[in-house]
Amino acid sequence: MSVLLFNGIDRAPLVHLLERYGLELRLVAPQEVIPGSYWGEREAGLIGAQLYVRLDTPLHSILHEAAHYVCMSPERRAGLDTDAGGDHQEENAVCYLQILLAATLLPDGRSRMLRDMDTWGYTFRLGSAAAWFEQDAEDARLWLQDHGLIDAAGRPTYVCR
Question: Is the pLDDT of residue 1 over 70?
Fold first, then answer.
């Protein structure tokens, strides 16, 4: 199964979601290099509050980079260019948040995001994104809650750290 791409979703809800966090979605022409892409190829890029994508950019990549923007400190966000940085705890929180955000965009967003993360090659010690999310992600959930990025019910608050 292939991963869900930007050109396979309704863009309006995604644009609205990103705007709630102060991010601007910037579409790059097909085959052009994506500015600010850490992984290159078709993966999303971040420079400041600009999130760069192409039509062939995977949704998991878009939401992962958006979640990095949300989770990083204001100081890091101010100088953001390509490498979001952060520690292991923050990276786990980013993965958790991207799953929550996917659930706000698509009826099957959570399950689709978990499958796409596995397809891309995210690695979790329990063997899959779903097993991690359901059984081993309490630290990520608490990190997000402690930083005010999700509420006590686990819903995004739509504010940046």
Answer: no
DSSP 52: E
Residue 159, in any domain of the structure:
no
pTM of the model as a whole? 0.95
**Closest C-alpha to 71, from 32, 105, 100, 43:** 100
Q: Collect all residues with Cβ–Cβ distance below 8 Å to 133 and sequence separation of at least 6.
A: 96, 99, 114
Sign of the CA dihedral 55, 56, 58, 62? negative
Tell me the CB-side half-sphere exposure of residue 136, using CA atoms within 13 A.
13
Distance (Å, rounded) from C-alpha 115 to C-alpha 50? Answer: 27
* 13 plus 74 within the same structural domain: yes
